[in-house]
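Input sequence (430 aa), recorded before submission:
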Amino acid sequence: MDITVGQTLSIIGSGEIGISTFSGGNAGDHLNIHAGSLSIDGLDIPGVFTGITATSARGATGKAGDLTVIVDHALSVTGGGEISSNTSDQKDGGTVNVRADSLTITGSGEISSSTFAGGRGGTVDVTATSLLIDGANSGLFANAELGSGGKGGSVTVTGGDAKITDGGEIAASTFGKGDGGTVTVFLRAGDLSLQTGGAISAASSTSGAAGSVSFTLGTLSMDSGSSISSANTGSGDAGSVIIGATGPLKLKHGSSITTESTKAIAGRIDISSAGIIKLKDQSSITASAGLSGGNIHIMAPELVYLIDSSITATAQNGTGGNITIDPQFIIAKNSLISANATVGTDGNVELISDFLFTSNSQIFATGTVNITAPALDLGAQLITLPTSLLSAESQLQERCTALLQGDFSSFISIGRGGTEPAPEELQTTF
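Predicted structure, token format:
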């Protein structure tokens, strides 16, 4: 089914455009909507659907259809509004494609694809020049819900700048038996900002492996408890977190990049930046495992800077993960770099840099610590200062009237009386 609106399309307060199946047939192949601008506002009415949907109801054996929403200008989803594809029985979830110049998701609005039974979670594919996700329960989701046996779906974001704040999310999760889905963010040279609890995650709570999270972007800025993670709180493995940036990566005020498995193997964390990588104010990069720990590899051409922060790889009952940090300068102040296997062995730290500066920091490994930065001996470069002081009297200059011993009146600007100017004063040019 195709719907085209040249100007603005508004769906408000229990308004709905949808395709559904309640039996053996599919819910149509596609629902295609093209509008100049689109606003979906659920008005925060509880228990009422507002938005665009493709649904395969419980008891139906057909697949939910796919959705394509193309908006030339601004697309807004708020007040509990949705663009979603939901499958309640054994078929896979549908695909949700959204294209917009500007996409704003607030007030528990969501764009999602979910499966509640045996099928695989669907796919959410979003392209936007600018993306804002603001507020708890707002975001992009691909879920295999509780009771499902399929693998979680995937979320892909392509575009320019993106901002996720105040608990907004991009997530691919599975709560059933299957593996978790993946999250892929490709912002070309755009910037990604996560603030005040903004989160991007691939998660599982079962024996299936959690999915991975990968980024290609310009800069990454994380603030105030924001997080990027692949986590498994069940018995399965965690996935990996891979970040490649053309600019700086900055984490502050308790922000974190994490791969964590409660009972199994952690994934790897691989971070590369063409600028600097900076962590401050209790921020962290962590690979944590119930069994063997994941590896952490951090690479930047110039500087990795830690202030009151940590980079750790921890294994509870297996081989420890390894940490490799490879810039020109490493600076650590009141910080921790640690590869630790609580029960097992190994877990190594390798710092490949030309210069290493530490202040009240700890570098620890259950295995080995290898630091390539040369040991600098500044003692041979220091010059012993003379113990005698210059007499202030010897630095003063006699004035003409004193030399002539006559009765003269005069006005003289003596400055500092012949002594050198202080360092903070204007200096004489040559």
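Checked by second reader. The longest strand covers residues 66-78.
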